[in-house]
Amino acid sequence: MSKFHLHYTHKNSMRVDPEFYKGIEYIRISSLPEDQKEKITLTISQDKVIKIQMEGKLLSDCIQYVDYLIWFEAHHQSPLIVKSQERQPHGLLDFTLNKN
After folding, report:
1. How many angstroms separate the Cα of 41 from the Cα of each of 21, 29, 47, 97?
2. Which residue segment(s) compose the domain that 37 sits in?
3. How many separate domains does the chain show?
4. What is the pLDDT of residue 26?
């Protein structure tokens, strides 16, 4: 039988810290690590993207930090199942959870 390993990957980037403006905790999509920037652009609902007027500039790629945290847990730390060809006694499957 085959052996599977279930583990989590962070794709070499971690959760970013929020920025603050007038009591709003937010992140800017353009400030995220490249892998997160690409993935969040494709997966987050557009109604979560907000605009913040700051010092005469309009920041149009902001997401409230709470929405970023929800996205990060749901989309960025995706489990991967890796199949191994090791045989187990009695034909049993072995599922091993590894958090890397």
Report:
1. 22, 8, 12, 29
2. 3-99
3. 1
4. 97
Residues 45-67 have pLDDT tens digits of: 999 999 999 999 999 999 999 99
CB proximity list for 51: less than 8 A, separation 6 or greater: 58, 59, 60, 62
How many DSSP H helices and E strands does the chain contain?
A: 2, 7
pTM for this predicted structure = 0.64
User: E strands along 16-78, which residues?
Assistant: 19-21, 24-28, 49-54, 57-64
Question: What type of residue is 29?
Answer: I
Tell me whether residue 63 is exposed, middle or buried, using C-beta atoms within 10 angstroms of its C-beta: 0 to 12, 13 to 18, 19 or more: buried
- Stretches where the chain sits below pLDDT 70 are 1-13, 76-100
